[in-house]
């Protein structure tokens, strides 16, 4: 099933073990993961995007080794569990996990900051970042 909604100008970059990503892809592209951090701004961004009838992409690279961008998917849900304030959890769900051809470098992602002029470092290892959707994924 093709999602014909327009793609948001923003996306979320995340890292995950490539074996987990491969398993989700091979089993149909629908999945979810849990992170030991609070994706508050990401949750607000998803809500805003959905209210505009747009899709928000999550773009993945491998957590276990230096790679470029491996997969993208359409985010469907972000849930934050604040039950333990010292250890908040974020669970996110997505559909349509798709390999990215030629694994562009992480530095091809422009960070969503005040000036919008900084790019993600190729050595960036934090669990997530808010970015502008790259041109090669616009119009999907």
Describe the fold and architecture:
- This protein is α+β, with helices and mostly antiparallel strands.
- The chain has one domain: Archaeosine Trna-guanine Transglycosylase, Chain: A, domain 4, CATH 2.30.130.
- The chain has 2 helices and 6 strands.
- A 6-stranded mixed beta sheet has the order 2-5-4-3-1-6.
- Strand 4 and strand 5 form a beta hairpin.
- The protein is globular, with a radius of gyration of 14 Å.
- 28% of the residues are buried.
**Low-pLDDT residue intervals, each spanning 5 or more residues:** none
What share of the residues lie within helices? 10-25%
Query: Average pLDDT across residues?
Result: 92
CATH class: Mainly Beta
Q: What's the number of helices?
A: 2
Shape: globular
User: What composes the largest sheet?
Assistant: 6 strands, mixed
Q: Order of strands side by side in the largest beta sheet?
A: 2-5-4-3-1-6
Beta-strand fraction estimate = 35-45%
CATH architecture label = Roll
Distance between the termini: 13 Å
Quick tags:
Archaeosine Trna-guanine Transglycosylase, Chain: A, domain 4; alpha+beta; 6-stranded mixed sheet; 140 residues
SSE diagram, text form:
Blueprint: E1 7-16, H1 18-26, E2 31-35, H2 40-51, E3 55-62, E4 69-81, E5 89-99, E6 128-132
Parallel strand pairs: 1-3
Antiparallel strand pairs: 1-6, 2-5, 3-4, 4-5
What is the gist of this entry?
The chain has about 140 residues and is an alpha+beta fold. The chain contains 2 helices and 6 strands.
